[in-house]
Amino acid sequence: MSSAVDVESLSVRLDGTQVLRGVNLTVDAGEWVNIVGPNGAGKTTLLRALLGLVDYHGSVKVGGLAGQRRAARARTVAYVPQTPVVPRGMRVADYVLLGRTPHRSVFSAETATDRQVAAEVLDRLDLRGFGDRAVQSLSGGERQRALLARALAQQTSVLLLDEPTTALDLGHQQDVLELVNALQRERRLTVIATLHDLTLAARYGDRVAVLADGRIMQCGPSRQVLTAKIIAEQFGAQVRVLDDPDGPVIVPSTGRRRDSINDNRRQP
């Protein structure tokens, strides 16, 4: 199987701080890998490096190519940021059409093909009839689908998702990830997502990579990677990992973290 993303010895320094330190990661075409890690581990920076939005040392290849110009890379990889900038009052239809920009020459208007692609994406994501609504007027789940629609309108082979379930209730979190799961299979998309919720990261996708202290510490199937021992080491959290047919369920061990802190304080 060919790889869609190859990262070797990736290092990124931002404002004098070393954020990523020699990251190595290979993602096969059509694979879904979830990146998890404590706050400040560099998860968003890793995605931005794949997009060519930050300076870095090392090698980054997306779609077998390295150092693509931004327009060319936008035809290969689409990105749904955690906090997108959406112009106030922009209609959903116009926002989704922005995803077609990499396929047009500079200053050219959208074509009939662009409008058809956008309409098909809106229909697929159950947003038919939302085209004239302002993006800001949508509910959390509707807005997340609109953001995903713009990315899918790019018709890329690689999709990057930065915390796609943030600020969504449990039902909408499941809706979004189930939708990504279906689209991945239908289109053979390569998906790389950052997630805070370890249980969701374990139950969706093919592999989990733990990013901590700027490095990939573990990478593999969720049952091998998301163990109580590894979570304690990399997240500083005491948890129980429950076995379930759909994937591990991670729950806090109530009181154990506080007891551990108190025990450490009693030590001379």
Describe this structure in words.
There is one protein chain. The protein is α/β, with parallel strands linked by helices. The protein is 35% helix and 26% strand. The protein has helices at residues 43-50, 70-74, 92-97, 112-124, 140-153, 170-187, 198-203, 222-225, 228-235, 256-266; strands at 3-14, 17-28, 32-36, 57-62, 65-66, 77-80, 158-162, 190-194, 207-212, 215-220, 239-242, 249-252. α6 (170-187) links the parallel β7 (158-162) and β8 (190-194). The longest helix is centred in the middle third of the chain and has 18 residues, at 170-187. It is globular. The termini are far apart. Mean pLDDT is 89; it is low at 261-268.
How many strands in all? 12
For the termini, the CA-CA separation is 55 Å
Q: How many alpha or pi helices?
A: 10
Major sheet attributes: 6 strands, mixed
Briefly note the structural class of the backbone.
alpha/beta
Strand content: 25-35%
Helix content: 25-40%
Calculate Rg over CA atoms: 20 Å
| Low-pLDDT ranges | 261-268
User: Overall mean pLDDT score?
Assistant: 89
Overall geometry: globular
* Sequence of secondary-structure elements: EEEHEEHEHHHEHEHEEHHEEH
The strand order across the widest sheet is 6-7-8-3-9-10
What secondary-structure arrangement, pairings included, does this model have?
Layout: E1 3-14, E2 17-28, E3 32-36, H1 43-50, E4 57-62, E5 65-66, H2 70-74, E6 77-80, H3 92-97, H4 112-124, H5 140-153, E7 158-162, H6 170-187, E8 190-194, H7 198-203, E9 207-212, E10 215-220, H8 222-225, H9 228-235, E11 239-242, E12 249-252, H10 256-266
Parallel strand pairs: 3-8, 3-9, 6-7, 7-8
Antiparallel strand pairs: 1-2, 1-4, 4-5, 9-10, 11-12
Helix pairs in contact: 4-5, 5-6
